[in-house]
Amino acid sequence: MDILNKYVARGRRTASRIWGDTAIVMLLPRGNVNTKENLFELSKMGTHIWKLLEKKTKVRDVIDSIAKEKGIDSNSIQKEVITFIRKLVKDKIVDFLDRRED
Length: 102
Known about the structure:
globular, 3-stranded antiparallel sheet, alpha+beta
């Protein structure tokens, strides 16, 4: 399946707070782990994505929402958004989901 049609959502082991255009996300540790390494400060675009991922959302819809907010074509932001989402997945603060998952 192509990444644009994959669903993505916040990870289950996260907690977050949003102040203005900035989201602070914490990956909740398992066991005795340094929590400072589990804190992520998201940019304005990252915070917009984080808000969208409160519920299961297609990657394509995330891209379209960011493009609309910035008043640009989806294709011009697609690579940047996909790269960012992949980083969030790698950092385990968001997950790719099967369409059937809720």
